[in-house]
Model the fold of this input.
Amino acid sequence: MDVTSFLKKICDVLAEQDTSARDLEAIEFAADGRDISIRARREPHGSPYPPLPAVLGAIGRTCLEQGVAAPQLSRIAFLPHEVRVELAGGAHQPAKVILYPIEGTLGAPTGDLAPLSVERLRLISSRR
Done:
């Protein structure tokens, strides 16, 4: 299963449970994606937070474009100002972090990202 289909399946399961991106703290992957842990927030993110299909769709497209396979996903963190995707490194590849700033917010990387490759991509929120 490619990464876009994998993330769509996760999105579908979460939608069945009425879980939105605003409700999530993180999606964590272990055992090459066979074990998935969903961490919910105590308080939801603010209303301009993008919908889950948009978030996971953007991540899936980026992974597909960059040749990232589903087993490389390590963690998707739903932070107040950005969505942070952590990818596991391979034998000859360093770990990588992709940041999707929520519209209008840059979200500077923290010091713990120093050894990782970081890319910033734009994620558009749904404001109504």
In short: The first helix runs from residue 3 to 16. Residues 104-117, 124-128 have pLDDT under 50 and may be disordered. The chain has one domain: 3-120.
